[in-house]
Amino acid sequence: MIKLIVGLGNPGIEYNSTRHNAGFWFIDALAHQTGASLSIHKTFHGHAVHTHVAGQDVWLLKPLTFMNCSGQSVVSLARFYKIPPKKILIVHDELDLPPGSIKLKNGGGSGGHNGIKDISVHLSTTEYWRLRFGIGHPRSLQPPRGQQQVADFVMDPPKKSEKEAIDDAISRSLYAINLIVKGEIEKSMTYLHSSPVIRDKLKTKTTTHAINTRLANTN
After folding, report:
1. How far is Cα 3 from Cα 13, in angstroms, rounded to an integer?
2. What is the DSSP letter of 95?
3. Are 63 and 75 contacting, i.e. CB atoms less than 8 angstroms apart?
4. What positions carry a catalytic annotation?
5. Which spans of this chain does the record mark as coiled coil (predicted)?
6. Tens of pLDDT along the chain (219 residues)?
C-alpha cells in the first residue's frame, strides 16, 4: 500500500501554471478531494498534510526545494515516518507522453527528469512508484539548443487544449489513486491505460460491487 504521495514542481507563483508543475496540480486536486489542507512543514522542506485516501493513512507532499533538489524533501519525510521506497508514489510531468496520457510504473530510469534523478539519489534506489502525466514535447529540437528548448518548454504554461487534456488526466487519476493506495495495482493500471469505454465499465463494476458489499454488511 502507498503511504506517501509526492507531487513534483517548483515553488512560487511564477511557476504555478508551468508544465513542470503537473505533479503539484495533482496533489492540490487530491488534497481538495480528501478535504485536507496542505501547510508548510519545515522539517520536510515542503507543503505536507496527513490525510486519508481510500480509507488508508497517507501523507501528501509538495517539495519546496525546487525540482532539481526534490529528493531532500522526499527522504526527510520518508525517513521520519519510516516509509520505505516501495510505499512511495511520485507524481510528475513526462515529456515523452502526449498531454492527456497517464502511465503508472515502478522503478526504472529517470528519463532525463531531474526531480526523479535527485529522488533516486537520496533514496539510494529507483524502486518506487511513479505516476507520469504527459505534457508533450517540443516539436523540433534544433542543435545545439535542444536541451535549452526542452527547459524552456517545461517552464512554459501549456496551451489551452493541452491544459484541458492534462486536467482530464488528473481527474481520471483521482479515481485510480484509490486503487493504487490500496495496492490494487493491476486494476489501477487497467483503468489508467484503457480506453474511455473500458474505464466506464470498470468504474460501474467497482461502484456496483461497493454498493452490494455495503448492503450485505447491513443485513
Report:
1. 28
2. T
3. no
4. 20
5. none
6. 899 999 999 999 999 999 999 999 999 999 999 999 999 999 999 999 999 999 999 999 999 999 999 999 999 999 999 999 999 999 999 999 999 999 999 999 998 899 999 999 999 999 999 999 999 988 755 555 567 788 889 999 999 999 999 999 999 999 999 999 999 999 999 999 876 655 666 665 554 444 243 434 544
pTM for this structure? 0.88
The answer to whether 114 is annotated as binding is yes
* Cα torsion angle, 123, 124, 130, 132, sign: positive
- At 23, the amino acid letter reads G
94 beta partners: 134
CB atoms within 10 A of CB 54: 16
66 carries a ligand binding annotation: yes
Closest by CA position to 26, among listed 90, 116, 117: 90
List, as one string, the DSSP characters of 156-207: SPPPHHHHHHHHHHHHHHHHHHHHHHTT-HHHHHHHHTS-HHHHHHHHHHHH
Q: Does 10 carry a binding-site annotation?
A: no
b/e for 70-109, b at 16 or more Cβ within 10 A?
A: bbbbbbbbbeeeebebebbbbbbbbbebebbbbebeeeee
Is 15 one of the annotated binding-site residues? yes
3 state SS of 77: helix
Q: Are the CB atoms for 116 and 127 separated by under 8 Å?
A: no
Phi first, then psi: give them for residue 58, nearest 5 degrees: -140, 140
